[in-house]
Design a protein that fits this description.
This protein is an alpha/beta fold and 384 residues long. The chain has two domains: 175 residues, ATPase, nucleotide binding domain (Nucleotidyltransferase, domain 5), CATH 3.30.420.40; 170 residues, Nucleotidyltransferase, domain 5 (2-Layer Sandwich). The chain is built from twelve helices and ten strands. Keywords: Acyltransferase, Cytoplasm, Iron, Metal-binding, Transferase, tRNA processing. Its EC number is 2.3.1.234. Pfam families: TsaD.
Length: 384
């Protein structure tokens, strides 16, 4: 099966073509084509993602990335051909709010041979709705043009199964997943493939969002995670403690929920007390903040492990790109030799379309494929 996948949930525009083979429990994947553009530098001056700017950039970039992915896969072959009137009308109807994309696809359909694609998978939420709609509408219109089924994929499910791309292991159930990104912090229990129950989530800021907000307080660029980690590592290499003490919100509550708003506020008050925010001060605050986040995530996950006795632990999402956090979860997993730890490679941790293709294939093998060319984008789509 050859899957074309699209991801536009936030500020990354991504298009991939993945060849998927094997069974549900022994899948294998080969990346044929992959194109991704990050808008991070464009949003840096806002200190976060500006939704309408993200939408505009997705509209501008998705045709280029689509062509690049096809070219890498050897599926971009020039040939004059006709498209039916019904197809052209369908494309324009779907892309009525993105007429430039409609013009591109109609011209593309008349000049490029239809690629041998079995399925189109597209992120339909959660995320920024203006951004999501660009990918969803492009996928739907392409499905009409090529007469290929389109399936919606939950972005968080993509993060969950992203760890399967490089194999060779598959999940043993029950599986526990900690999904940590700029917009989400969720503990998810899965008793069987593609079945999810959220047992804990953030009540306010997501962990990645907290990183970005604290980085802004420290006058660091967006996205904040890598910059805070860099400062924290300087202290970590020289000593084990910081002169600052920050709270570990909801660390000892009976539930599995998180809260990072209070931690962020504590950083703000700490900075206000400092008359001179030197580089050393920033390093020590970054160090203590990262320790507070790590301790909170580790303890909540450990508590869930003790109660639910999972056989697999998945830690995925953009925040797991953090080296200290990765090492901390590897150490945690070593305490439970009966548990298989799954952490994606760094290039599959942040938002990408490869994980969307993986989810599409796993769904097809589970007979849970949702072929629906009337897909709706949802900014608050739940993982279920």
């Amino acid at each position: 099966m050859v899957i074309l996948s699209i991801e536009t949930s936030c500020d990354e525009t991504a298009v991939s073509i993945v060849e998927a083979k094997g069974s549900q429990k022994k899948p294998s994947f080969k990346l044929l084509g992959n194109a991704l553009f990050s808008q991070a530098k464009l949003h840096a001056k806002y200190g976060g993602v500006y939704p309408n700017l993200a939408k505009r950039e997705h509209i501008k970039n998705i045709p280029l990335l689509f062509k690049v992915a096809l070219q890498e896969a050897g599926l971009y072959k020039k040939r004059t051909s006709k498209i039916s009137k019904n197809s052209e009308v369908g494309v324009r109807k779907i892309l009525v709010r993105e007429p430039e994309l409609a013009d591109f696809l109609i011209k593309f359909g008349k000049s490029v041979k239809k690629a041998k694609i079995d399925l189109i998978a597209v992120t339909n939420g959660p995320g920024l709705e203006p951004a999501l709609w660009v990918g969803v509408n492009f996928a739907r219109a392409l499905g009409v043009l090529w007469n290929v089924s389109v399936t919606p994929i939950n972005h968080m499910e993509g993060h969950f199964v992203s760890v399967l791309f490089n194999g060779p292991k598959f999940f043993r159930f029950p599986a526990l997943a900690l999904l940590i990104s700029g917009g989400h912090t969720e503990l998810v229990l899965s008793k069987k493939i593609l079945q999810y129950k959220i047992i804990g989530e953030t009540r306010d800021d997501a962990v990645g969002e907290a990183y970005d907000k604290v980085a802004r307080m420290l006058s660091l660029p967006y996205p904040g995670g890598p910059h805070i980690a860099k400062l924290a590592e300087k202290i970590r290499k020289t000593k084990k403690v910081s002169k600052y003490s920050l709270p570990r919100p909801m660390l000892n509550t009976a539930n599995y929920d998180f809260s990072f708003s209070g931690l962020k506020t504590a950083v703000l008050y700490t900075l206000k007390k400092e008359k001179n925010t030197t580089k050393r001060v920033k390093e020590e605050i970054a160090f203590e903040f990262e320790n507070a986040v790590t301790e909170t995530l580790i303890k909540k996950t450990k508590k869930a492990i003790e109660e639910f006795k999972p056989k697999s632990l998945v830690v995925s999402g953009g925040v797991i790109s953090n080296v200290h956090l990765r090492k901390s979860f590897e150490k945690l997993a070593n305490s439970y030799p009966e548990i298989s730890l799954f952490i994606p490679e760094k290039n599959l941790s942040t938002d990408n379309s490869v994980m969307i293709a993986v989810a599409g294939f796993i769904r097809s093998k589970s007979n849970k494929i949702r072929k629906n060319n009337n897909i709706r984008a949802s900014g608050t789509l739940s993982l279920s």
